[in-house]
Amino acid sequence: MRKKVFKLLRDQRGFTLTELMIVIVIIGILASIAIPRYRTVTSRAKVVEFKSLLEQLYSLEENHYSESDAYSSDLGLIGFEDPKAKYFSFSVEADSTTFTATATCTGDIKGESGETLRGLKVTIDQNGEHGGDMALRRISRW
């Protein structure tokens, strides 16, 4: 019985170095595909935050204009409450006939090529036209 146990232990074989290297290469290839896609998906999820809020600012400005025949740069006056956004801050520049609502990236968001988007801006104006920095517009599809 004791000889059988030793024979079984002696006959067991592990992986060869070649097999281990092939597995490591396969894992590396999968990681090189998955990690950039994961970063892009998480960044897109973060930048979604500004879209609805800029659209809301646009609607509030249009409502204010229809009531008073002028746009306003006072967010409180048009009824925009602080959204406590995690990744963006919002502002409006306006005169009596035009306005530009701006969302500025304040969070740590990476672009498609790994660059940081902090400080970049996207805008919407009285005509509903979208503008801003291309890196942020590209990832948000704005």
Please explain how this structure is put together:
- This protein has 142 residues and is an alpha+beta fold.
- Helix content is 51%, strand content 15%.
- It has four helices and four strands.
- A four-stranded antiparallel β-sheet has the order 1-2-3-4, with helices on one face.
- A hairpin with a 4-residue loop joins β1 and β2 (99-105).
- The longest helix has 52 residues, at 17-68.
- It is rod-shaped and about 100 Å long.
- The N and C termini lie far apart (74 Å).
- The mean pLDDT is 90.
Based on the model shown, name its key terms.
single chain, 142 residues, alpha+beta, four-stranded antiparallel sheet
Give me the Rg, rounded: 27 Å
Rounded to the nearest angstrom, the distance between the terminal CA atoms is: 74 Å
Mean pLDDT: 90
Principal-axes shape call: rod-shaped
Beta-strand share of residues: 15-25%
- Major sheet strand order: 1-2-3-4
Largest sheet: 4 strands, antiparallel
In short:
The protein has 142 residues and is an alpha+beta fold. The protein is built from four helices and four strands.
Write the layout of secondary structure elements.
Blueprint: H1 2-11, H2 17-68, H3 75-78, E1 88-94, E2 99-105, E3 121-125, E4 130-132, H4 134-140
Antiparallel strand pairs: 1-2, 2-3, 3-4
